[in-house]
Amino acid sequence: MGDVRNGIATRAGAMLLAPVGWLANVFDAPLRMLQRRTGSNGMAVFFLAPNMLVFGIFVLFPLVINILYSMTGGGALFLGDRTFVGADQYGRLFSCGSYLDPKSCTEDLFWIAVWNTLTFVVLQVAMMVAVALVTALVLNRELRARSFWRAVFFFPVLLSPVVVGLIWRWILQRQGLLNLMVFEAGGTPVNWLVERNWAFAATIMVSVWAHVGFYALILLAGLQAIPKDLYEAAEMDGTRPMRVFWRITLPLLAPNLLVVLVLTLIRAVQIFDEVYVLTGGGPGTSTLFLTQYIYEVGFASLLRNPGLASAASILMGAVLVVLTLIQLGIARRNEQRGKTR
Amino acid sequence: MSQITLTGVSRAFGKVGVLHDINLDILDGELIVFVGPSGCGKSTLLRLIAGLDRPTGGAIAIDGKDVTTVPAADRGLAMVFQSYALYPHMSVRQNLAFGLENARMARAEIDARIAEAARMLEIAPYLDRRPGQLSGGQRQRVAIGRAIVRNPTAFLLDEPLSNLDAELRISTRAELAALHERLSATMVYVTHDQIEAMTLADRIVVLRAGRIEQIGTPLDLYNHPANLFVAGFIGAPRMNLLPVKVAPGGTGRSSLTLDGSAGFEIDGNVSAVNGDVTLGLRPHHISLADAGKGDITAHVALVEALGSETIVHTKTSGGQTMLAVVAGQCAVASGDTVDLKFDTSHLHLFDDTGLRIGVS
Q: What is the complex's ipTM, to 2 decimals?
């Protein structure tokens, strides 16, 4: 039976590869000629060109355009129609009596968004890492139907952010599911999305719920990579469970925790879609985050200012570049540690 | 130091029994080796003694105290793992101190114990290195050091040499034997390597399929294997095992016939059902004889010249493979016909159930 299956697989493979072989033969001669003319470096450029072209059009070009926009003023959409203002947009963003008091700033909404984002980042990252760690520790235990529970925690990651926002709006709105349960339990319903603190807490809770499965998975992989022998050695040594966690699990999980920390940070700084659908930045400006500010200023407000939005996005991009470099540095260090361990 | 007693110990995983009715007394200060092929249950048995696993039946006692349900940490034992299980993020010093810190031992006492172990195992220069910066042999010493500093009542060693290269394995084996001598500690040692078992053990426990096949000193097992399995497992190269027909010979003698061809006589009477027995003869007890003066004639299939001795692989006329180890170097080659002479004073016979039969 196995032989028959192998035979079919071999034949199917051969049939699939036949056109590839035919194409290779067709292109062989012209490619050889090209290599003779351009050399091996030229061939590398030839093969990289399609990808570089896509990267150039969709990443590099918009980035350059964005920088140029940030140095122009007015409401015109096309770059040619806009006035060059140099660093004025940046100056406007940084024009503040006190950065701690957004009302003293020329662009108060920007600083409100900055402080909201900073608060969100600190609270959400701490909560995300803690919840992901606890989830991973629980899922790493010998649970009944462990695969099922892992799937349950990962499922929200597969949902579109808009769907996440809509689901939670339906749950948290005044006449939503949560208030129904509170009412049934004899409590007083709360306006979760209208009261400032509750709305802010809701944005953190929803984003943690939506993404924790992904980070828990990274930590779970780290936990499973810790050799079981180490725990048995600790058991022989009479190590108490909390000491095992602090002295063995946590240090050995540190590389994964760092990756999770930096990825969560990057994503938290970029937070937009699910919060926009959930609260729209409200009540007032209490859940207005940086990306929404950029979107509102650049596209959605009546007095749109693409230059100001571009300047704000360049500043946010700079923060993200720093965080990404940190992440790359950590990844490289982990790789080197892995080689010496 | 301590005595470990296993009474009727068994372990099953679901419906699969891994250990069956193990009864064993490990004496105080003894180095006992569990040996057997992969999957025979030797590591499981060690884990049961360690307390890392619980038996499904029977009892384990240390110095007469039942510890069957006592947690691993409270048994006073120390274990050296096959993978060494050193904490990779801690220095050697921290690895050694970890277990002592758990016991809330005074710092001065911890430092003194580490210094003593480091001196004994010659690892003092590496105390501030991490395990990743050590060679396999050095890691192995640190793993032993971690066990020593705890001053345990017994040491459990789970294939501690299996990750070392051949040369290092031999030297570390000697160091382990010396360490046992110095500490006079009870040691339970697991290995699948019968040479390790023979060279280290005071007594060997041979396991197969979760059952004890034989317990005895290395030479006991070598000279008087209780059954075909032990006969084949202990000794290298392995014992030649050949089906023979036994019949009464001259007065007080028995005649053994190999392959239905030429036979030979031995002293004593052998009783066997239908006369079918298995003859066991170690390669070292077969020699090359002058033409016409051997017990049987065989064709040489392969010659392994090791310098100090030569291993001659032969085929009998019935197609049985028979190995002979000849001292020194000898001038035989593949395809030659040789006469083999058996040292019948070292011959073993086994009945059709595989059990050893005596010659009366």
A: 0.84
